[in-house]
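Note to self: keep these together.
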Amino acid sequence: MEHITLGNNFRVGEGLWLHAIPQYLTFTYQPLIEIGENFSASDYLHIACCNKISIGRNVLMGSKIHITDHSHGVYTGEHQSSPHEAPFERKLGSSGPVAIGDNVWIGDNVVVLPNTSIGSGSIIGANSVVAKDIPGNAIAVGSPARVVKMWNEKECKWLSV
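Structure:
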């Protein structure tokens, strides 16, 4: 797997789709998917990459999760995609990579969008959409996901923000 690196103890359920895209139509990319050791996910995980997606160690994911670093089309800058062009004919556009830290738990039906990071020790609640960075040791929920609790080292508990 030229564009995909998996750590030891990689475990997933049914319906896994690791999609590193070096070419789409006439466009070429340099995709890289890196997943650390002790990774575990349930059914129907879809990771789609034309840029870079990195996932740390000891990460747990639920079912029906989509993680992507791109979209069908370019919607900022000089050469934007036209609405008159069929979506499947548009160049894949990436606003940035996705980085997921160590010891992260992601619940069922979560979508992680391009140019985002999820800090180590964080939890993303079910049915959330990660559209911006989530700091480490946070619990984030909703669409878009927002931080609702942070781990307090002094008190050794999750405190509402």
